[in-house]
Design goal:
The protein folds into two domains: 2-117 and 243-319, FAD/NAD(P)-binding domain (3-Layer(bba) Sandwich), CATH 3.50.50; 120-239, FAD/NAD(P)-binding domain. The strands form five sheets. Strands 1, 2, 5, 6, 7, 8 and 19 form a seven-stranded mixed β-sheet that branches. It is built from seven helices and 19 strands. By secondary structure, it is α/β, with parallel strands linked by helices. α1 packs parallel to α2 (61-74), α1 (14-26) packs parallel to α7 (290-319) and α5 packs parallel to α6. It has helices spanning 14-26, 61-74, 124-128, 138-141, 157-167, 186-193, 290-319, and strands spanning 2-11, 32-34, 48-49, 59-60, 78-80, 84-88, 94-98, 103-112, 116-118, 134-135, 150-153, 173-176, 198-201, 204-212, 215-223, 229-233, 236-239, 243-245, 276-278. It is an enzyme of class 1 (oxidoreductase). Keywords: FAD, Flavoprotein, Oxidoreductase, Redox-active center.
């Protein structure tokens, strides 16, 4: 095992990690960034990004992340391919092990940008038609299905929000609910049931997403009470059954909610551990957008810079 001491360690790439790197490197903090198992994060699985400012013609998701990385490296961010697999935040400086203990890094400040992973149903056809009609974000991709019939799977607030959002731009929205009731808040349920072009299919499970070379063309569902099957014509299939934040390695050290999203002091990126900052989707269960992730990445770097400056001033005072 090799060991290394760094001033700022950024765990994870994507908009939050790379933005944190840009700000930290410009502040002279010499950040080291480990990309994680999916360099670039969730955006690398998105073909077209049309809602991020600065790209008037839209941009391919993977290319956007290449642009972010190049900008971070322009200011001398040390971008490395590898994954943080263990941490110890019980003392100071903080310890982070990379790639199952092959490398140990001690860092004065740690910026977490590990993101979250969308949950899917586990159907092979979801993979087949990923970015060809299958999506886990209506706000991100709904525009591409404007004027087309679509379907949403889920029963919570996220599913209700996605269905009502799509109902504004699509003539018909099918909402598949596995039970005979929704888990969404009463106000969201009321909104769904009062929207004329949303049809709720109760006790309904998806058997298969169907399509051709052009992408999704329909979905086959089954009523889990009666066994009745039906084929429904759609062009967009949105899975809204939740996200899992990639925060398991921080359990026991950082405060998180019941789902695993990291808790921060409101209005900051500060966690309950001094010198550890949480950014992006790992700490955001509400918005989960590239632009909001980038914003919190900026916050993480600025908070880290101020923390380190205060630490240096303390040391100077102690010497004096």
């Amino acid at each position: 095992m090799t060991e290394e001491k760094v001033k700022v360690l950024i765990i994870g790439s994507g908009p939050a990690g790379y933005t944190a790197a840009i700000y930290a490197s410009r502040a002279g903090l010499n950040p080291v960034l480990y990309t994680g198992g999916e360099p670039g994060g969730q955006l690398t699985t998105t073909n077209d990004v049309e809602n991020y400012p600065g790209y008037p013609e839209g941009v391919n998701g993977p290319q956007m992340m290449v642009d972010f990385q190049k900008q971070a490296e322009r200011f001398n961010t040390d971008v490395r391919y590898g994954m943080a697999t263990k941490v110890d935040f019980s003392g100071y400086p903080h310890k982070v092990w990379i790639d199952d203990g092959k490398h140990l890094i001690t860092a004065d400040a740690v910026i977490i940008a590990t993101g979250a992973t969308a949950k899917y149903l586990g159907l092979e056809s979801e993979k087949t038609y990923a970015n060809k009609g299958v999506s886990a974000c209506a706000v991100c991709d709904g525009f591409f299905y404007k004027g087309m019939d679509v379907a949403v799977v889920g029963a919570g607030d996220t599913a209700a929000e996605e269905a009502t959002y799509l109902a504004n731009i699509c003539p018909k929205v099918h909402l598949f609910v596995r039970r005979d009731e929704m888990r969404a808040s009463k106000i969201m349920q009321k909104r769904v049931l009062n929207t004329k072009n949303i049809e709720v299919h109760w006790n309904t499970e998806t058997e298969e997403v169907t399509g051709d070379a052009t992408g999704v063309t329909g979905v086959r569902v089954v009523n889990n009470k009666t066994g009745e099957k039906k084929e429904i014509y759609i062009k967009g299939f949105f899975v809204a059954i939740g996200h899992k934040p990639n925060t398991d390695i921080f359990k026991g050290f950082l405060d998180m909610d019941e789902t695993g999203y990291l808790k921060v002091i409101p209005g900051t990126s500060k966690t309950n551990i001094e010198g550890v900052f949480a950014t992006g989707d790992a700490a955001d269960r509400v918005y989960r957008q590239a632009v909001t992730a980038a914003g919190t990445g900026c916050m993480g770097a600025l908070d880290a810079e101020r923390f380190l400056t205060a630490k240096e001033e303390e040391l100077e005072e102690a010497k004096g």
